[in-house]
Amino acid sequence: MLPAETTTDHDATGSEQVADFGGLEIRWDSRVLRPRPWTTAQSHWIAALADGGAPGPILELCCGAGQIGLLAASLTGRDLVQVDRDPVAADYARRNATLAGVAADVRVGSLADALEPGELFGLAILDPPWVPSADVPNFPEDPVGAIDGGLDGSDQLLLGLGVALRHLAPGGYLVVQVGSHEQVSIVERLVDGIQGGSSGWRVLEVRDYLPGGLLVAIGDQR
């Protein structure tokens, strides 16, 4: 999840803060990204898709302090696997899962290495860093590693899409967070190009929450 809203209570000292996120109390500090209230929409959307989706746990990639996946798991009753490359964020995700009463397996590592080849998930959430590198200085309160998405903001987006779709069970759903309509187009082109468009994965809907961001739902249309 990424910068989108002006913050007024961000603590630059690293002291622990508590945010209300859809009824969950989420712990975080200035070393991780502040929970954005608008991103509860991502949790609610994936939860709404769960009834028609494949069985199995939820996967959340680039989980940060864990709030989006934790709210989705709370709404669906499904187990949760969360991945983040930042050990501080992963520690908060574990703590927040315990406080929320959610069964979560939180893993520290790169997106490419954190999952076993045969692992499949019924639902997936992807919250990659999506800020273009040149724009990162515009968000001085946010940790650089949590928001810097490379030249056009799509570095982790492209990697995360590939990982998520490889581990999404047939009939599953993925909801991706991006920062611009240009990045929506990147998602659409990648999904359409997988296996020459014969994979069955399709962009189903795009929802606009700008200036916060956009959400893209992907599903299996075979």
Automatic annotation (TrEMBL):
CDD domains xref list: AdoMet_MTases (cd02440)
Transmembrane segments: none
Keyword Methyltransferase recorded: yes
Keywords assigned by UniProt, alphabetized: Methyltransferase, Transferase
GO MF term (any one): N-methyltransferase activity
UniProt lineage: Bacteria, Bacillati, Actinomycetota, Actinomycetes, Propionibacteriales
Name of the protein in question: Methyltransferase
One record GO biological process: methylation
Entry coiled-coil feature ranges: none
Annotated ranges, domain Methyltransferase small: 56-130
